[in-house]
Amino acid sequence: MTARTTPSGPAGSPRSPGGQVGLHSDGTAPLLEVSGLVAAYGPYRALFGVSLRIEAGATQVLVGPNGAGKSTVLRAVSGLLDKASGTVLFAGRNILGWPAWRIARAGLGHVAEGRSVFSSISVQENLALAMTGLRGWRSRGRYVEGFERAYEVFPVLAERRHQMAGTLSGGEQRMLSLAKLVAIEHKLVMVDELSLGLSPAMVDEVYGSLVHLKQMGTALLIVEQHPQRVMEIADRVAVLARGQVTAEGTPDDVRSLVETLIPAP
Q1: Are the CB atoms for 245 and 51 separated by under 8 Å?
Q2: Are 231 and 251 in contact (CB under 8 A)?
Q3: Cβ–Cβ < 8 Å for 19, 51
Q4: Closest to 62 measured CA to CA, from 192, 211, 180, 172
Q5: pLDDT tens digits, residue range 42-51?
Q6: Model pTM?
Q7: Which residues lie below 8 Å from residue 234, measured CB to CB, with a gap of 6+?
Q8: Angle at the Cα of 167 (from 164 to 170), degrees rounded to 5?
Q9: Which DSSP string do the residues of 213-228 spell out, in sequence order?
C-alpha cells in the first residue's frame, strides 16, 4: 500500500485525504472520524478541511513541521477551541461544539503540551482530583480501581504516590498527566509533544508507557514534532502541512516523506 498524497488547493477549498464520514463495509464505525475540520484563531485560519480516522485500539500519529496545525487538531477535537467547523464523530456521536468537560466524560482524553499537573499536591491527590465528579466514581472501590490501573502502567508513580507533583522530574510529570487519564479508562487518549524537553532515557520510559496503554486496548492519537521514535508504535501516520493532511498511510508508506519533511534531530 502506498501513501495517499494530496496537492494543496487554494485557501478555502483544500483537498485532503482521510475518507468521508461513514461506516465500514461490515457496518461498524471508527472510534473517531474527523471530516472537513476547519479551525481558526480569531481571523487567522489554522486548519483547512482536515480529515482523520482512528479505529478502536489503534495508534494514529500526526506529524508535521512547526506551525502545521497539529496541536490545533487536538484542541478542536477535545473542545478547547471553539472556532471550528466540520464533523467530529466519536463513538458514533458528533461531538464538535460540545464543551471540553463533556467530551472528556464521554471517554476522550487530551494531554496537552506541557506538564499539566497540580504541583502543590501529591501524585495520588492529582489522580483523585482527576476522578472527582465523573459519573460512577462516588464509590471508593472505583477510586481504588483507578489508582491500581494508573500505577500498573506507571510503576514509578506508585513509588512516589505521596510526593508533591511539583518535585517530580519533567518526565515523571508527563507520566502523571497520562496517568490521570489512565485512571479514568478513556477510550481514546490524545497526546501532544510528549517527549518535549525530556532526556533520551526518559523518552524511552515515557514511550514504554504508551506501549502499555496500546496493549491495554486504548486508542492513541499522538502529535510529535520529531516522529522517528513514535512511528515505531504507530499503526497509521498522517502528515500535516499548512493546515492540511498531505499524506496518510502506514509508517512504511510515509517514512521517506516524513524523513525528508522532518529530518531527525
Answers
A1: yes
A2: yes
A3: yes
A4: 192
A5: 889 999 999 9
A6: 0.82
A7: 59, 60, 61, 222, 251
A8: 125
A9: HHHTT-EEEEEESSTT
